[in-house]
Design a protein that fits this description.
It is a single chain. Among the domains are: 103 residues, Pdz3 Domain (Roll); 235 residues, 2-enoyl-CoA Hydratase, Chain A, domain 1 (Alpha-Beta Complex), CATH 3.90.226. 38% of the residues lie in helices and 20% in strands. The chain has 18 helices and 21 strands. The strands form four sheets. Strands 3, 13, 14, 15, 16, 19 and 20 form a seven-stranded antiparallel β-sheet that branches. Helix 3 runs antiparallel to helix 4, helix 12 runs parallel beside helix 13 and helix 13 packs parallel to helix 16.
Length: 496
């Protein structure tokens, strides 16, 4: 097995719990809940969202949301499994169009799945628009290689597959790029969620001559570690140069936060995979000292895989780069200081305090977080970067990361390169995120407390648009070329 295939197998182990409706699953996961219990869960969710979700009717009018709730509750006329009920709730919640309001399985379901070797889909796939392109294949001898264009799976055309998956995914506003990225993260889990597990998959694809062909690939089960054979496992790890746990932690940290320099072009390359990574503030302080010491003229910051995190860290990074004072948002407001059905909301007791002591009720009847609405942040004077800035963004750029790129968009020395962000340009619902646990099924729903309007004059409904759009393509995937980075390097070269 080649390294790519082994890495894909290990990747699938991590996600084997994600979602499944296979008939081979243990009985506990096949358990069905009475219609009355499911209706109660759905009604409790409606009560909580109406009482505490700050943007329930932001994109979908109340009269339509009322219909969606009614149809969902009344449509439950028979018992359902957790997977079936979760799917119905996910479709309902997606109508809110809030990327932070996410439906997840119960902890019991996740633990049950993690203990069983669920049959896995053999391909890792990148999707955008109606395209499906192979990133890796478990089976090294297959004709379906990295960069292969897929046209259908088990007779289902790409668009039919994607339409089936997309209805379960919550996003900010109406941009579709984030949905494609979520599916790309684990298309096998989405396929199982919708169609169940198959023992094999008929893959239609385009070969190198442009001819459509078909190949059947078997599903596979991730290997369980037999601790009695750890010596053999260690030899295998050594053969493939697989890192130890300690090395994995170190490599992960280095992959999440990195800084490198090209002395020839006087360029610094910074990668930030999130704004909640331990040691991030120290990393930023050290990085901008080094950037200044190296007399860097060009700074490339890669936030393509940055899903957000602590807003304060996003603000701090912006202060190293912004030319003028700025504020975070025009509006940061909650609709209620108390929690409806609070016993079903984790952390509700602790978040009652910031709601009651850090907010002020305004004329609109909402409770405003003035710290973010009124405070203007000044650019740092020490180690501030004044050269040319290139921000790499994409569909996985979300929440605080999209706030970061949006804050700098339009500044004369800043160029945004890549794709539309998953996070909203106009605003989102976030700041504090709680977890609703429905009493009967224990299904979990993320509940944001504050509506955030970043700038009321911005267009509403889409992500942050790049200044230079660089879309993925199958040739670049096949060749392993980073198109977005190549565009930036070309821009820097053209200045010389």
């Amino acid at each position: 097995m080649q390294r790519d295939q082994l890495l894909l197998a290990l990747f699938c182990v991590l996600f084997c719990w994600s979602c499944s409706s296979s008939k081979t699953l243990p009985y506990s996961i096949q358990k069905k809940y009475a219609a009355s219990a499911l209706q109660e869960d759905a009604q409790i969710l409606e009560n909580i969202l109406e009482s505490n979700h700050p943007s329930l009717y932001w994109y979908t009018p109340k009269e339509k949301m009322d219909v969606y709730f009614k149809e969902t509750i009344q449509g439950i006329q028979d018992s359902l499994t957790e997977v079936e009920f979760r799917n119905r709730i996910a479709v309902l919640v997606s109508q809110i169009r809030c990327g932070h309001t996410i439906v997840r399985y119960s902890n019991q379901f996740i633990k049950s799945i993690s203990k069983n070797r669920i049959p896995q889909f053999p391909l890792a796939i990148k999707t955008w628009d109606d395209s499906l392109v192979v990133l890796a294949n478990v089976y090294a001898g297959s004709n379906i290689k990295r960069g292969t264009i897929i046209t259908s799976i088990n007779g289902k055309p790409n668009q039919q597959l994607l339409d089936s998956f997309f209805k379960y995914i919550s996003i900010d506003g109406r941009g579709a790029s984030y949905k494609s990225q979520i599916v790309s993260n684990n298309i096998g889990a989405w396929y199982r969620n919708m169609f169940g597990s198959d023992s094999s998959y008929l893959i239609s694809y385009i070969d190198s001559a442009g001819i459509e062909k078909k190949e059947t690939l078997r599903s596979f089960r991730p290997y369980r570690i037999d601790r009695s054979k750890m010596d053999s496992l260690q030899k295998l790890m050594n053969a493939f140069k697989i890192p130890t746990k300690k090395e994995i932690r170190k490599n992960r940290k280095n992959a999440e936060l990195s800084l490198s320099f090209n002395d020839t072009t006087r360029t610094a390359y910074m990668h930030l995979a999130g704004f909640s990574i331990n040691g991030l503030q120290k990393f930023m302080r050290r990085s901008f000292r080094e950037i200044e010491a190296n007399k860097t003229q060009n700074l490339v910051i890669d936030v393509r895989d940055n899903g957000g995190g602590h807003l304060n860290n996003s603000i701090r990074l912006t202060r190293y780069l912004a030319k003028h004072s700025f504020k975070v948002a025009d509006t940061v407001a909650a609709i209620n200081r108390n929690f409806s059905e609070g016993k079903y909301i984790r952390q509700s007791f602790w978040f009652w305090f910031p709601l009651n002591f850090n907010t002020t009720k305004m004329e609109d009847g909402r409770y405003h977080y003035h710290r973010f609405e009124t405070k203007r942040y000044q650019p740092f004077e020490k180690h501030h970067f004044d050269g040319d800035i290139y921000l790499l963004q994409g569909p996985s750029t979300f929440s605080a990361a999209s706030v970061f790129t949006a804050s700098l968009k339009g500044q004369e020395n800043v160029l945004l390169v890549g794709e539309e962000t998953g996070g909203g340009y106009y605003g989102n619902s976030a700041i504090h995120l709680l977890t609703v646990v429905l009493p009967n099924t224990k299904i979990q729903i993320t509940l944001p407390l504050f509506r955030v309007v970043l700038d009321k004059d911005r267009p509403m409904g889409r992500g942050v648009m790049p200044d230079i759009l660089v879309a993925p393509n199958s040739f670049a995937i096949k060749q392993g070329v980073d198109l977005k980075m190549e565009v930036v390097k070309g821009k820097i070269k053209d200045k010389r």
